[in-house]
Amino acid sequence: MKKKLRIAAVGDNCMDVYDSTGEAFPGGNPVNVAVYVKRMNGDSSYTGVVGTDDYGKLMIDALKEKGVDISHVKVIEGQTAVTHVELKDGDRILGDYEEGVMSEFKLGEEDINFLCDHDLVVTGIWGMIESELYKIKKRGVPVAFDFADKLDHEITRKAVPYVDYAFFSCDSKSDEELNEFMKHIKSKGPSVVVVTRGEKGSIAYDGNEFTEFGIIRCEVIDSMGAGDSYIAGFLMGIIQGKSIEECMKIGALSSSETISYHGAW
Fold first, then answer.
1. What is the mean pLDDT of residues 48-62?
2. Which domains does the chain have, with CATH numbers?
3. Can you give the C-alpha Rg of the chain in angstroms?
4. pLDDT category of residue 224 using cuts at 50, 70 and 90
């Protein structure tokens, strides 16, 4: 029987709390990616830390319900991370962030071994594992990283040499500026650099050519999780051996599904 391909998501999690409605949804970049992978009938795990509060229990229960492997989620005395969110015309506006027990998150050797038993590892700019990426890279396991809009950040500079699939978000640069930026990042080590540009779609660079893909039109209810679902779709395509353009299409389809409802998932 053929082994099922697995994606390991690791790093930050938080509860997205909508102050205007009092609603709270589990989220955080790696968490979202793990859930979206399961939504596409993939296999995923999440490695991270939650607090002993009600939000921590909610996070674990929600991930378990979605079928994500939570065997490496640790519970630490304290508060689960919280991001305060507002909605304006379907766009999410992020407010204060309360880090809670995420400040204590560290990977142990057993965690590294667990992650390296997957086909691909994905994390992000606030995942707090940029110092450990070289250990995963050294084991020959591909690494994907969501740098968000941090085009020139200390963490970006530290992490990018150990990343295979580098994701950024930027809709403010001209096409020429963006192309030069992507070439620069590609020269630092990644196999593929991808930039999502909101309504402009996405662009990918593999060192040979730039590939562009638009968006899948839909009614936008809440943009929370749009980028994370794109990344999950793109990476599902990658582990299935799809072309860059096919991966971008899968990402766009996944994103269009996510933004059609409230909350990341």
1. 97
2. 6-258 (3.40.1190.20)
3. 17
4. low
